[in-house]
Known about the structure:
Helices cover 65% and strands 6% of the residues. The chain is an alpha/beta fold. Among the domains are: 146 residues, P-loop containing nucleotide triphosphate hydrolases (Rossmann fold, 3-Layer(aba) Sandwich), CATH 3.40.50; 50 residues, no CATH class; 87 residues, no CATH class; 54 residues, Winged helix-like DNA-binding domain superfamily/Winged helix DNA-binding domain (Arc Repressor Mutant, subunit A), CATH 1.10.10. A five-stranded parallel beta sheet has the order 2-3-4-1-5, sandwiched between helices. A three-stranded mixed beta sheet has the order 6-8-7, sandwiched between helices. Helix 5 links the parallel strand 3 and strand 4. The longest helix is centred in the middle third of the chain and has 19 residues. The relative contact order is 0.04.
Amino acid sequence: xxxxxxxxxxxxxxxxxxxxxxxxxxxxxxxxxxxxxxxxxxxxxxxxxxxxxxxxxxxxxxxxxxxxxxxxxxxxxxxxxxxxxxxxxxxxxxxxxxxxxxxxxxxxxxxxxxxxxxxxxxxxxxxxxxxxxxxxxxxxxxxxxxxxxxxxxxxxxxxxxxxxxxxxxxxxxxxxxxxxxxxxxxxxxxxxxxxxxxxxxxxxxxxxxxxxxxxxxxxxxxxxxxxxxxxxxxxxxxxxxxxxxxxxxxxxxxxxxxxxxxxxxxxxxxxxxxxxxxxxxxxxxxxxxxxxxxxxxxxxxxxxxxxxxxxxxxxxxxxxxxxxxxxxxxxxxxxxxxxxxxxxxxxxxxxxxxxxxxxxxxxxxxxxxxxxxxxxxxxxxxxxxxxxxxxxxxxxxxxxxxxxxxxxxxxxxxxxxxxxxxxxxxxxxxxxxxxxxxxxxxxxxxxxxxxxxxxxxxxxxxxxxxxxxxxxxxxxxxxxxxxxxxxxxxxxxxxxxxxxxxxxxxxxxxxxxxxxxxxxxxxxxxxxxxxxxxxxxxxxxxxxxxxxxxxxxxxxxxxxxxxxxxxxxxxxxxxxxxxxxxxxxxxxxxxxxxxxxxxxxxxxxxxxxxxxxxxxxxxxxxxxxxxxxxxxxxxxxxxxxxxxxxxxxxxxxxxxxxxxxxxxxxxxxxxxxxxxxxxxxxxxxxxxxxxxxxxxxxxxxxxxxxxxxxxxxxxxxxxxxxxxxxxxxxxxxxxxxxxxxxxxxxxxxxxxxxxxxxxxxxxxxxxxxxxxxxxxxxxxxxxxxxxxxxxxxxxxxxxxxxxxxxxxxxxxxxxxxxxxxxxxxxxxxxxxxxxxxxxxxxxxxxxxxxxxxxxxxxxxxxxxxxx
Length: 867
């Protein structure tokens, strides 16, 4: 495929080459480094920038046996056999055009005569020289002397950093590269520019690298192009057979215990492979393990092997490893992987256990493979349950439901019933979005349960369902019965920690919520890997709603670090945690980056309830930065996916709508939405969300919420609500110093947007009081805090930055005129009459000294340069 690959800046090395070619200390440079790191590209770029007469030659294996091979074509037909005479003729030809820069690519492949000529030119300073030499290969003595004797400056060219690699790929693709994919490509290419290019091109051709929601993401193995395979084949072809056998075994089991590899391939072969630099032996805990020295070698070896050979090799590895003790989930997963596609047979129990391990480690595609193998081997409801759990997280909710619906609950024992029922309810509620059917199935299996531990598990599940359906009191009651009982099983505790923890967080009981979630953390080793993010999200919410933002940041960061290709869903969910904290702190640019990547990574999740809060936070961030079209699109996506299965997030969705309306310049509807969100939250006892909604209304200029916020401050945990209540009181009293104090408190907490709005409102209050010094101080603080938020724009910040002699309603209508709305559209938006709009416009035009609405709109947009 033909794609233009841009240059990645190597400014330091570039300037060093130019200095060496134009100074007096050296006559040029030699660039050393691995094949593909960009030596030739950089050398040619530097010589082209200098200009003049540049003559390039390239050493090759075929010309290495020909005396003066790379320069022979410059001499023409020459019959003299005397090397000195031959070299003299070549030198004369090279220098015939005066000052010359000689570029030599792959100088390590020069024949002795060519290398000697190059050294003589350097000694005599007859020409400037730029040469490239591959690291780790034999080099002629004359070429080595070029830098050892100080004639050429040696520059060791390192692989690209991860940031440079990402910049290179994003420039070529013309879009954002998913962070998870960037990590995989960086690890696979080792920062080698050539390898990186072929990886990207191969993945695009194979369809495994694709753009989703504007983010490029890799799903599946890193593909290798035939061109790259051919390049690496050259190195593989030169390896002796015993070393190749080592690499073939390592291809299907990397990393592998050194003793196992030595047993299968022979100690001498392993040592030879290490000495040749194709493998490395590293200490891991209390054992020595073997890895490829470069990960792409495995892909090349894999391409060389036929299906039968690959099955046989996997079978040898499986036979050897199954006799050894299994010490970890990773050991069991590796054994099951080998068994899947080998010429040996494995039992059902191995695949069921490996499926549970993979799901526990959040590697859902791998868990699905093992679970399918178990189902194919006549595994019963246990295997089907594992398959459905792997499917539902990946968005295959219809297949998950079909897999479970084939079983008759009347034919299941209590343990099977609880396992089957919990997964089916989870799929119906969180993935399908059918709360009615989920409640029906849950009621049915609860009616059959008798054993106390099964009853506890289903009670915990009922708590989790209730909180999503916005029945917080029920959620807490069910959770408390599980938490207070002795001997509740792990899944019961986890369900209760999520249901009760989220309910308590939204009620404003942050400390109690954290205690619940802590109990959930204690049983995490018994539950599915991705479930951890659901309860941790409740913990992050509890911390942000109480104002402990630094603890929230630490909590979110603790769940980052997934790197296996199949763990992309876990990586995406960790981005939700990070983005949630970013938005709470007012770090909207970071929040948008994290949440956009999360939405793209989890794009197959359909009606998944766990994506709704992510999109709500994303809409809030877009609105804060004035990106109203993106905010509206995101809110529309949330609305389309919402329902009774996600009713707990409805008040937060209304807050996001309020933020969007404010960003559009319609403050009255924004306040109305915020107040509606507060009332909705109050009805369901979401007191922390009620406080947030009331504070949003205050930030938008509403003076009526101080009393309600003061009441909430008496029953909600944390310092955030205290600051919100003080802010509302100061706003209602036009208390400039009080607003300044509120701004300082918000900034100390880390809630930068609230701090910015309070400072902006303080500036307006000081202006009203005629205190110009404090006006300037508060305005400067508002400007600084807005910049710290990525350039946030809110009604208060806009008013402080653009003081106009208009009432809030006149300003609001003028902004809508500037946005291009007609008087009828403005009236509909604000739910007033057209005559009322016309009256406000008339007074606004008089105050702003303009003659008509078009001039007023231009002035508000800044078209005239006077506003």
